[in-house]
Design a protein that fits this description.
Length: 631
């Protein structure tokens, strides 16, 4: 077909040579861009089926304590749903294979599949699923240069450059013309029509219909095609998306042949449409949304299914405009842009106006560094003593450390610049914090994370967590403790960029204390600890966890590079105050007029209480630029 392709020079395409040229660069505003959303089918349940060597036809559900958290499609055929109790699911399907997820046992630093895990002493573990996800993403990254992590079981792939390469091999004459137009500066000229009909193209998957009124039939290989469109001439957008269906089918085939996982894909002009159409038919399907079918498809989708509209914003819009449940998109399309902008603000109103028309120019982001990692446990019965919380912190630390290492491995496999024999670069967090729930009140505290080498990261997470816990305990009683959360956040790309400049020795600002105990969960700002204040030591303090010949130097201490003393983690605050006092003393000697009381006031720890009138508890949530509150 490539050698005999005859352009229809009587008609020109609605696309230009510039559009074709931009395809290789993945320009987000290019109308020829093609995005795929790949979603693993009932992923957790599939992981367990494969681990146990079961057929995909066997009904399988993942169990956490006494509730189902994942149900495969064979089990769904019996009417079994997520969040259902196991005893009720067994009534519907006595042959249901229910597998409890792996768990961490309190105090242990490794997980396993326990026979009868107890929610009082165990914590659910998703590491086996993350490990399988990593292998699947290896295949995605191997086949596509631009892959975005959408979740443990889903990914977005920008297929534009792959389609460009495939089309250049199939249609060399077209790309000879492109080279000539590029040289002559005539890229804005329109392409000629390809001279192909709909039935000349090879489609792999389910074509979403352009209109519900079209009569349809099944072709010889079972694909749904619109009857009266088979012989019409196609434009280049359909030629290229047909090539994309072949590329995605090959990627999905590799996932199944190598790892035995089935997945469903949506292929469309942008990421929003790709994600929406991937749910059109499941499981193990491939759904294709061409530009001509976008309008018809969106009229069948509730507007709250759009990304960003499933929560409070969507609820507010539905209430404010009195949006009906049926054809909600069609209803909102009737609202003029100026009305959306007046109600929602410039940016949100314009974004919604475009989204309802299937327009999304967001890029595929190949790097997906987590802003934070959380390990949490609802404690039943409530914990009454320090030692038991420390046991949970040991388990939480191992959980978070494992995820940090897995993320490093994923980043290594997706990086095209990574040397094949280099070890993955482990990211080090900037901040560590603990949140506890006590009866009807909750308390949080955070400190900067100390510098460390990757091989000492697990011990550093644990011992730093214990330090934070002891600081909370020193301020108030936290027992009985009903919930414990451990969070690390503010990740750097490599250990070399760790928070070594400030470390533990940071000055306190008038607005807030770096070592503050606050009576509610704190949502950290991304780079807050980098931007606030300056170190008050004469030299930056970097904590040293390297091996030492001193037998007393164990994992609960560090060497202070300011004074070269061995300091216990538990003595961090006292040692920090000692350095601060030394600094104030030097400042007073140099400038006698300096107020000691003023310096001490800035340094003093601020302890907030549930009745605190601090502005951070009064301040309303800040709106993003262009947004307005709905009245």
């Amino acid at each position: 077909m490539a050698n005999n392709l005859d352009f229809n020079t009587s008609y020109v395409s609605k696309f230009t040579y510039a559009n074709l040229d931009a395809l290789q660069r993945g320009v987000s505003t290019n109308p020829l861009r093609i995005i795929a959303h790949i979603d693993l089918d009932a992923f957790y349940a599939q992981c367990e089926s494969i681990r146990l060597g079961l057929s995909h036809d066997v009904p399988v559900a993942c169990l956490q304590w006494d509730s189902l958290i994942a149900v495969n499609y064979s089990a769904r055929a019996f009417g079994i749903q997520r969040h259902e109790k196991l005893i009720e699911a067994k009534k519907k399907c006595p042959n249901l294979v229910a597998v409890h997820v792996a768990t961490w046992k309190r105090g242990e630093d490794s997980y396993r599949y326990h026979e009868q895990p107890d929610s009082f002493t165990h914590k659910a573990c998703l590491d086996p699923y993350r490990q399988q996800s990593k292998l699947i993403f290896d295949i995605f990254n191997r086949n596509c240069p631009r892959v975005e992590y959408g979740g443990i079981d889903e990914a977005f792939l920008d297929l534009s450059s792959l389609v460009y390469d495939k089309a250049s091999r199939l249609y060399p004459r077209l790309f000879d013309n492109l080279a000539a137009k590029r040289s002559s500066g005539e890229l804005d000229l329109p392409l000629f029509m390809p001279g192909l009909t709909f039935q000349d193209l090879t489609w792999v998957g389910n074509l979403l219909p352009v209109s519900q009124s079209f009569e349809s039939k099944l072709d010889s290989i079972g694909e749904r095609l619109e009857f009266d469109l088979l012989t019409r001439e196609v434009d280049w957008d359909e030629v290229l998306i047909s090539l994309a269906t072949q590329i995605v089918a090959e990627i999905r085939s590799q996932v199944f042949s190598e790892l035995k996982f089935t997945c469903t894909a949506g292929i469309a002009p942008n990421r929003t449409l790709a994600k929406l159409c991937s749910a059109y038919r499941k499981p193990n399907q491939q759904n294709i949304l061409r530009s001509a079918a976008v309008s018809n498809f969106l009229h069948s989708v509730p507007f709250t299914k759009f990304r960003g509209l499933g929560g409070k914003l969507g609820d507010s819009i539905a209430k404010h405009f009195d949006v009906p449940e049926q054809d909600s998109v069609g209803f909102l399309l009737g609202i003029p842009q100026y009305e959306l902008v007046r109600t929602l603000g410039d940016e949100t109103g314009t974004w919604l106006f475009n989204l309802l028309r299937g327009q999304d120019f967001s890029e595929i982001k190949t790097r997906s560094q987590s802003r934070s990692m959380l390990a949490a446990k609802n404690l039943r019965p409530p914990v009454e003593c320090h030692d038991e919380l420390v046991q949970w912190l040991r388990t939480f630390s191992a959980d978070i450390y494992g995820r940090i290492c897995e993320f490093a491995a994923v980043e290594s496999s997706s990086s095209k610049l990574e040397e094949p024999h280099n070890k993955p670069s482990v990211s080090i967090p900037k901040t560590i914090g603990i949140h506890v729930l006590i009866n009807d009140s909750s308390w949080s505290k955070q400190i900067p994370f100390p510098a460390c080498q990757p091989e000492n990261l697990l011990d550093t997470i644990f011992h730093s967590a214990v330090v934070v816990l002891k600081q909370i305990e020193s301020q108030r009683s936290i027992y009985p403790c009903r919930q414990l959360n451990l969070t690390v956040y503010g990740f750097n790309d490599t250990v070399a960029k760790n928070h070594t400049i400030d470390s533990f020795l940071k000055s306190r600002s008038a607005e807030g204390d770096e070592f503050k105990l606050v009576p509610h969960a704190v949502e950290p700002e991304s780079d807050r600890h980098n931007q606030e204040d300056t170190a008050f030591c004469s030299q930056p303090l970097a904590l040293d966890f390297s091996d030492s010949t001193d037998e007393s130097h164990d994992h609960d201490s560090f060497i202070c590079p300011e004074c070269q003393q061995l300091v216990k983690f538990a003595d961090i605050e006292e040692h920090t105050d000692w350095h601060y006092a030394r600094l104030v003393e030097k400042q007073l000697a140099a400038k006698p007029s300096t107020s000691v009381s003023s310096a001490a006031a800035n340094h003093k720890h601020t302890i907030s209480t549930p009745n605190s009138s601090s502005s951070q508890f009064k301040k309303k949530q800040k709106l993003e630029k262009g947004q307005r509150r709905l009245l």
